[in-house]
Amino acid sequence: MVSKETVRAQALAAAAESGGPASARVDVWLWAVRQCKTRSAATAACKAGHVRVNGEPVKPAQHVVVGDEVRYRVDGFDRILLVTQILLKRVGAPVARRAYADFSAPRPSPLDAPAAIIRDRGAGRPTKKERRALDALRAGVPDVDIEHILDVD
User: Are residues 20 and 82 in the same domain?
Assistant: First the structure.
């Protein structure tokens, strides 16, 4: 896998050769590279604190340049994007994909998530002992008697 420093150096060299814009507003850039459906959604994400540039929370008018790292929180997961090209207008997906390098961790599969523990309707609240056993089960402690927890009297 290519490191961030290598991609950053290549992007800076390519930006120096091209005659494109030097910077863009972060909300415009997120919209242009198709991370947000609308520019107002990108602005709202910045105002809500879901966007960080080089580790710092930013306002929508903050400018990004080639080589900046943009962290965009969407659906509870961070997208880590390295700016490789400045775009001011929304473009097609293949062109937009070339404007950033994605270093995000892969999202976990829904099959990897633990199953929800369902109690029978009308069973009431769990006792303190049952709650501790359920917490241990969720934490992955191996000595939990699952049959006893879910056993209905």
Answer: yes
Q: For residues 21 and 75, state if they share a domain.
A: yes
CA dihedral 49, 53, 55, 58 (to 10 degrees): -40
The answer to whether the beta carbons of residues 122 and 137 sit under 8 Å apart is no
**Residue among 73, 79, 81 nearest 101 (CA):** 81
pTM for the structure as a whole? 0.69
pLDDT in tens, 104-139: 988 877 777 666 777 788 888 888 988 888 888 777
Helix H segments across 4-84? 4-17, 26-32, 39-47
Q: How far apart, in Å, do the first and last CA atoms of the chain sit?
A: 55
Please tell me whether residues 8 and 82 are part of one structural domain.
Answer: yes
Number of domains in the chain: 2
Compute the residue count for the chain: 153
Domain that holds residue 92: 4-102
User: Do 97 and 58 lie in a common domain?
Assistant: yes
Of 117, 44, 119, the C-alpha closest to 74 is: 44
